[in-house]
Each structure stands twice: as C-alpha cells, then as structure tokens.
Amino acid sequence: MIYDCAVVGGGVIGLSLAWRLALAGSRVIVVERQQLAREASWAGAGILPAGPRTNMEHPYDQLRAISSIRHAEWAEQLREDTGIDTGYRVCGGLHMARTPGESAALRGWRLQLDDEQIESLELSTDDLADSESAIASNELRCCLSLPDDAQLRNPWFLNALIAAGRRLSVEFRTDCEVRSIIRRGNQVTGLDTSDGTIQAGSYCFTTGAWTYPLLHGLSIRANIVPIRGQMILFRSEHVLTRRIINEGSRYLVPREDGRLLAGSSEEEAGYDKSTTDEILDSLRAFAESWLPDLRQAKIEASWAGLRPGSYDGFPYLDRLPDIDNAFIAAGHFRSGLYLSPATAENMAQWMLTGEPLISLDPFCLLRR
Ligand SMILES: Cc1cc2nc3c(=O)[nH]c(=O)nc-3n(C[C@H](O)[C@H](O)[C@H](O)COP(=O)(O)OP(=O)(O)OC[C@H]3O[C@@H](n4cnc5c(N)ncnc54)[C@H](O)[C@@H]3O)c2cc1C
Known about the structure:
2 domains; D-Amino Acid Oxidase, Chain A, domain 2
C-alpha cells in the first residue's frame, strides 16, 4: 500500500503529527523501531510552562503561545474522541531562588513575563508558608508564583494520541526500524526498513535523539545530540503540594494521586540510558530540601531518557534540503511535550499545503 504520509518515529512529535494529518484526511503510517512512545516522550515530566498571551514576534515564542492554547483544546478533544484523560491540569508553578544570583535571574525573568503578559506574583516567605505548609522556606530568597503553569501525564497523553490515531485508521508499524532512506533526485521514494520497503507521498522524520545518524545517510546534518535526563518518582501518602516547584533546571512535579516526580539532570552520555547513584542521590537531596516530608515517601521508580538536544536549543522544523517531499521535526530538547501541538499543526499544514502556518525560518536545517 502506498500511504499519503509516512511519519518515522513514534514519540510525542510523530504521534501528534500523525493524528493531525489523519484528521485532515490523509492515510498515515507511523514507523517505529520498538514499541510506540517508549523514549524521551515517555521519560519526560510533562511540564507545560505558561505561554505568552500577547502577539509575539519570534517564531519560537509563537510556537509557545500556540501550544499553550492548544494543550487545553487538545485535552478536551482527545477526551471526547477517545475517553482518555491526558492529565492536563493548570496546577500553577512556583519558581524558587536560594542564592543572590538565582534571585536576580528570577527578578530579571519577571520583566520578560510582564512583556509576554504572563501573570506572576512574588511571594514572601510568609505568603509561601501560609499557602504551602509542606514547603521548607528556610533557604528561600525569592519565590515567583505563576498560576498558569500547567502539566500533563505524558504517558496518558501519548496513549490518547495513539487511540485517536487508531480511530482515524493511522497504521502503527512497530518493531520496524528505518535503516536508510531511498532517494531519487529531489524525491524520497521509500524507506528501507527491517520490515521491507515502505512508500508514501511525503515523509516526516520525527526520530528525536536518533535523527542525526538517520539523516546522515542522505548527507544531511541535523545537529542533534542525546542529552540524558534522570528522574525519580516518589509516592507519598499525602499530596504535599499541588504546584510544580522549579529551581534552575531542576523541578518537582506533583501528581494528584500522591506521586511526585523529581528531575532532572543534563548529561552527555551518548545513547546510554542508565541511571547513576550520584545523580539520583542529588535529585533526592534536592527534593527533600524543598519538601522534607518526602523523607518518609517511597521511591517507586527511577529512570533516564534521552532528550534530543540541538546546539542552540531550537528544534529543526524544515523541509529537507533539495528534497520536495520529506521533512524533519526533531530536536525539541526540554520542550517537546510542551511544543508538540504547534509543531504538529505547522508540520501537517506544510506537508499538506506546501506552507506552514507561521514562519519556521529560525528552525531551518542550514542555520549556523
Ligand atoms: C527526563 C526528561 C524530562 C523531560 N521533561 C519535559 C517536560 O517536562 N516538558 C517537555 O515539554 N519536555 C520534556 N522533556 C523533553 C521531551 O520529552 C522531548 O523533547 C520529546 O519527548 C521529544 O519527542 P520526540 O518525539 O522528538 O522524541 P522521542 O520521544 O525520543 O521519540 C523518537 C522516536 O523515534 C524512534 N526512532 C528513532 N530512530 C528510528 C528509526 N531509525 N526507525 C524507526 N523509529 C526510530 C525512537 O524509537 C523513538 O520512539 C523531557 C525529557 C526528559 C528525558
């Protein structure tokens, strides 16, 4: 069978794109070399930072703004279509500083939040103690509360995207590795896979941290490297806080059922997804420093995932150079769950009509 669109990689970017393409009437196949949604998209924390509420000039900020709005709409649509709750909740976030440098950075960031019309309030130690009795505030120097920060349960979101795709006859070909891309002139004509050749009218590579080796076969450089992030899942008897606690690049994400995620590290470890005692110990100490009651909580699990990191932190969203019918959507680093709606809607539009919804120029492959 020849499909209209082949999406290579069944993480959040590929699954979101497949759903949007199928909603527009395309016959879609998703090709995944293992089970669906087992890599970075599963490993992530599901934090969805508040998005800008004003017209933004830079396309990256436009992706943030669109995604923030769409997450709420998608959660509703996915629940209606599949009956699955994605866990999308506007739970609010607390952004903490315990050093003078961190405080200055938070106050500077607040000016940017004001420009973007994102609501933020500075809380004193007493304000915090009044509203969050489980949070230790003895080391606190500055705390910003962002009521519009949100979260989702990424495994639930991914299951909902798969179910929504299935309802629209998306074919999910799992345990099927794309080994090379067959090219004739300015067209990709097929995928050479561990399960034979797959052909489609157009192709999109959403292969996350594994994109560089795959496209290298076409002499295309997508400068994406795996950046390992480790995570601990606590389970406590009581919900200690409802808001996400952020400090620098680390965070605590409380779920409604007493579970709480502590993350994360940024490590260059190649494709090694093992956890290390050193990082897990430091995450545990970080978690307990803000929520001392976690000392009594059970550690239910720990894991690591590989973020697709690009050198400038921006994803690659582009048509492949000198190829008319093949695209890339990869390299979202720490924000792939957050930016998945805007990425999928733009890439689907581009694949189907020849133009994305907004300018994606800063995300081109040939940027330097
Ligand atoms: C610890 C951690 C915490 C995070 N927290 C957050 C967060 O709070 N918020 C947020 O927005 N983002 C977060 N992220 C980042 C986010 O998870 C990623 O940006 C996002 O999942 C990337 O999605 P993806 O679909 O591009 O990649 P992936 O989910 O990695 O999917 C790529 C898929 O492609 C498949 N594949 C690769 N090569 C081939 C091939 N040759 N043939 C067939 N299939 C192939 C892989 O098997 C994989 O399933 C976090 C990441 C980590 C690791």
